[in-house]
Amino acid sequence: MALNISNYSLKVKHNVLLDNVQLNFNSGTISHIVGKNGVGKSRLAKDIILNLSGYFPKGFASGVTVISSYSNIPDDITTKVLFMLLSQTYSIQHIQQLISMLSIENIPQGVLIKQLSPGQKQKLKLISFLLEDKEIIILDEITNSLDKITVNEIHQFLNAYIKHHPHKIVVNITNNLDDLHNVAGDYYLFSKKQIQQFHHKDELINQYVEE
Amino acid sequence: MIEFMKSLFNKVFLFLALIFVLSFLIGWYLPIGIEKVEKLDYRDYLFSTYTVFTQFGFLMFSFIIAFFVNKEYSNKTILFYRLLNYNSVKFFLNKIYVLIVESVLLVMIMLTIVSVVYQNFSLFPLMMFLLTTVVAQYIIIIGLISFLSRNILLSIGLSIAYWILTCVLVSNSSSLSFLAIFDASNKLYAHVDHVFKTGNDFISSSNSLLIISYIGCLLLLSIVISTLTNRRWLKLGID
Lengths: 211, 239
Fold this sequence. Notes:
The complex is a heterodimer of chains A (211) and B (239). Chain A is of the alpha/beta class. Chain A contains seven helices and eight strands; from the N terminus they run βββαβαααβαβαββα. In chain A, the strands form two sheets. Chain A has a six-stranded mixed β-sheet with strand order 4-5-6-3-7-8, sandwiched between helices. In chain A, strands 1-2 form a two-stranded antiparallel sheet. In chain A, a hairpin with a 2-residue loop joins strand 7 (185-191) and strand 8 (194-198). In chain A, helix 3 runs antiparallel to helix 4. Chain A is globular, with a radius of gyration of 17 Å. Chain A starts with a strand and ends with a helix. Chain B has one domain (2-238). Chain B has helices spanning 2-9, 12-34, 42-74, 78-83, 88-118, 124-148, 152-172, 187-198, 205-228, 230-238. The relative contact order of chain B is 0.14.
């Protein structure tokens, strides 16, 4: 299975970000997208949900989960309440499976989420949104501004997750080159309104750094 | 469930309670402090409180209602609601449902205290009906404006602009009286005044029906609008 959108263009007002490109992401691997700020990486993720460009088929967004800075869990409830709410919609078994994969057993249950560390919040967010179990998962800068230990834990989690879910298409939009080093996958560079695929991460990193 | 929890954790219920206490205090202060009335009886006090709710409600309630709704946009939690299988109308209805239930509870508590102090419960059902519907009106209108607005300042500004505009329209044309039925320039206010002064315990059935129809129409209109704006709801929550 793959995500294929042909002749895709993305505009914000009169500013063309992507011009007539092929979106082609495979299942069973993490597709890393790298690019300088403002090239349209996050805008692509938003467009997949909102379909403002009109390029995505009707109902396409219902099969997509986006985990990003604009998909937060409420911070004015406790962890306990969060899991209570999630368990009303999703199976406890599935929740427990993700909890053990992300090792969050030490997060206090009775504390408001706003009082947790950024890493703890990010792990809770990953668990919550991955419960949707959608075929396409877009991760948008999920390792941004996190401590090194949490970033490593998330990398290990992603490697394990894609191994357990080889049918899923996971796109990782990132500026953190450690993601490329620690999580194997396909590599794409957004540059000059085009998407370029690289077979090896070092080639991509060299071109990205040179730009 | 989630909204009740949030209203407790982020102190919305506490602020709502403070607004109700303040409104009942202003209802006492206006005749005593400004009109220099020496003794305020049960009926006059409750009518004064009703006046405070109808004339200053948009000012007093706009912030807390807008905060409760707009916070989800500014905190970027709309995709979380989608995760819980919410759509725009379910989101909107849950928000206003919690605020209305909490307001009914607070009206009941405040009226019980006043009635116990005066040792008179004769106007309890009428005041319960009037204050609940007046506040429900604010919750639905300000809630809908907030639901459609990007941020809290815009929501408060539009709510107050709506209030001023409807007051002007109602005072200038009787055919537009349905826009703000509780306003002091409207016939309903004069009727309530007459009921309080003549010693009756409830308003006429036609006026009761008018209020129920008004709230019903507001609710229906807000359901239609919030149903049709699902994509806007997502966009406001993401962009």
